[in-house]
Amino acid sequence: MKVMSTEEIVNLLDANEDLYIIDVREDEEVAEGMIPGAVHIPLGQIAERADELDATKPYILVCRAGRRSESACGILEEKGFDVTNLEGGMLAYDGELEFK
Question: Which residues does the UniProt record annotate as the domain Rhodanese (predicted)?
Answer without folding.
Answer: 15-99
